[in-house]
Amino acid sequence: MFNKYRISCATAALALLCMAIPALSRTMDAPTISRVKANSAYIEVQFSAGPAGAPEGFVVEWMLRNSFDLLGGWPSDPASPEIRRAVFTGVPTLHAFPDGADFLLNPDISVSIVPGELFDETGVAATDLNELTPATGYVIRARAVVGGSTTDGPTSANLYTSTSPRSFGCTYTQGYWKNHPSAWPVLNVTLGTVTYNQTQLLNIFNQPAAGNGLLILAHQLIAAKLNIAFGADPTVALPLISAADAMVGGLVCPPVGGGSLSPGATSSLTNSLDDFNTGTTGPGHCGTSPARPSSWGSLRRTYR
Question: What is the pTM of this model?
Fold first, then answer.
């Protein structure tokens, strides 16, 4: 009985040890990051997971270059207010992946994320959902989430980049119009068949989409109409606006009403209007040159 007990204990211990070995030997790789493009409001960054992937998601951090230089690097305290952090662990809907995938990445997968354009995105928890500051230098780094920790794990090399300055005779993003109500060229905008005053429109702008395709579309539609009223060439946007208005119809946008649409139904129009507002198509975003159209399906989830 004594020997049998010792054998059973040894077997159990061996089993526990075998279970522990993968966790103990598991190592994560430092990801790589690179700039895709930037304008005055955001910087698009490609995150590329290493051979171990990022199966628990990943973290992207950024801070002002001036603060970085004054401090001599990243603050030692991960909770420092100088550090803006976004943790990507869920399923995006603003710029959804074509296969409906999430931010839990298999080995050697690259995705594009956009600090400065996170307000309407899902699957991410961020300390700062605001647009970036125009004509400003930033330092960005990234790492995989390890064991549920967002502050451990090998970190990428620093990416030094900047936003562009604003100018005139071009388009602005929804974040600009949301934060500069005194610059609005009109105080009433019709979405579908419903007309809203500026107070209601600002409430809509400040309402997180949380996966509601109507809100995601409305944010871009309001911005596009304000841009045109401000003098932007409407040629590219007019058929998109017409299609968006037809889709919205009589639905009343939250928080003014309770309307909703599937993000899958609105994503194509949303992305096309976003291209207009950010200057990828049309007259160009204020302070940046027009770039290639954003093909989020291929751009944001690619295999190296």
Answer: 0.61
